[in-house]
Specification:
Strand content: over 45%
Strand order of the largest sheet: 1-2-3-5-4
Oligomer: single chain
Radius of gyration: 15 Å
Helix content: 10-25%
Largest sheet: 5 strands, antiparallel
Number of strands: 5
């Protein structure tokens, strides 16, 4: 049975980062939704020019799962991805 320990969402970006306990001594950090990064030129996904004449790259189907055995390590990674993608 999965149990959500921490969850952060940014509805304007349609993105969430979750830390789940999936089994005894098994923790998952999950990134789900849309991630946006600046690339020039775009390679895949949806590309739109910005005011700075760069391109905004949108990954449409982002779902990444990272497995850890330690809650401390999983929480550290969760905090890093929350800061990187959600800017909370």
């Amino acid at each position: 049975m999965r149990k959500i320990i921490f969850q952060q969402q940014n509805k304007s970006k349609a993105l969430e980062v979750r830390l789940e306990n999936t089994a005894p001594d098994k923790y998952s950090v999950i990134i789900a939704g849309l991630t946006m990064q600046n690339y020039n030129p775009c390679q895949r996904g949806v590309c739109e020019p910005t005011a700075e004449n760069e391109y905004l790259f949108v990954e449409n189907e982002t779902y990444c799962t990272y497995e850890y055995k330690s809650l401390v390590e999983a929480k550290t990674i969760f905090d890093c991805y929350t800061a990187k993608y959600l800017n909370l």
